[in-house]
Design goal:
With 235 residues, the protein is an alpha+beta fold. It has seven helices and eight strands, in the order αααββαββαββαβαβ. It has two domains: 8-69, Integrase, N-terminal zinc-binding domain (Arc Repressor Mutant, subunit A), CATH 1.10.10; 79-235, YebC, transcriptional regulation domain (Alpha-Beta Plaits), CATH 3.30.70.980. Strands 3-1-2-8 form a four-stranded antiparallel sheet. Strands 5-6-4-7 form a four-stranded antiparallel sheet. The protein is globular.
Length: 235
């Protein structure tokens, strides 16, 4: 009988893709739970579905996640959102937002990542004061003329360019819906609309230190339950 052999690189890539699909499905489930199963009236769900389709997530996986979140699958484990706070390398403040079906497992794993990689987990509120709670809407506009003008018209407080063609708009948490609706009306394709955290001040550290922080954040992001990471450093 021949000896079987599995390419470790292919296996790693497959595992990474599987983890990404799991995270995308969880976001769909949470969005459906919070805003209902209809993407026409649930903008967060619509954005989550679009993101999943861009990553070629199977249609039946998307549909199952919607049913689970909407409570249409009685046997499905419910996903809850929970945040953890702490310090990464060089005292960079970090907030980790997670989506999990097992709070105890997630707490243990996130704590271990902090403790074993030069970080320090903190209590609730230990670093949150270093961030503003904001509405964050991200998207692109193929017919863009002036992003700052669109921000003003939509009621956003700030806009920044991210990547080649995407922009991120920030506003008051209570204005999330109105900013998203206004931008959509001005031709923006919304890819994300949610409450987020924005650092009040960025840590002043060198490039070598930033690299260590980035590696720490990457380890956090590789955790299956991690949804969003916020830090007081510009990466």
């Amino acid at each position: 009988m021949g000896k079987s052999w599995k390419n470790p690189m292919m296996a790693a890539n497959a595992a990474k893709k599987g983890a990404k699909i799991t995270k995308l499905a969880r976001e769909i489930q949470v969005a459906a739970k919070l805003g209902g199963p209809d993407p026409e009236t649930n903008n967060r769900l619509r954005a989550a579905i679009d993101a999943a389709r861009e990553e070629s997530v199977p249609k039946d996986t998307i549909e199952r996640a919607i049913k689970k979140g909407a409570g249409l699958d009685a046997g499905a484990a419910q996903i809850e959102e929970i945040s953890y706070e702490g310090y990464g390398p060089h005292q960079v403040a970090i907030i980790v937002e997670c989506q999990t079906d097992n709070r105890n497992r997630t707490a243990s794993e996130i704590k271990n990542i902090f403790n074993k990689n030069g970080g320090r987990i903190g209590e609730v509120g230990s670093v949150a004061w270093m961030f503003d709670r904001v509405a964050m809407v991200e998207g692109s506009n193929p017919n863009l003329k002036d992003a700052e003008e669109d921000a003003i018209e939509a009621g956003a407080n700030e806009v920044e360019k991210v990547g080649e063609a995407n922009y991120r708009f920030y506003g008051e948490p209570t204005d999330l819906k109105s900013i998203e609706t206004a931008l959509s009306g001005r031709g923006w394709k919304i890819t994300s609309a949610e409450l987020s955290y924005k650092a009040k001040n960025l840590a002043e550290i060198g490039e070598a230190e930033k690299k260590e922080v980035f590696e720490f954040i990457q380890i956090l992001d590789d955790n299956d339950d991690t949804h969003r990471i916020h830090a007081t450093v510009d990466l």
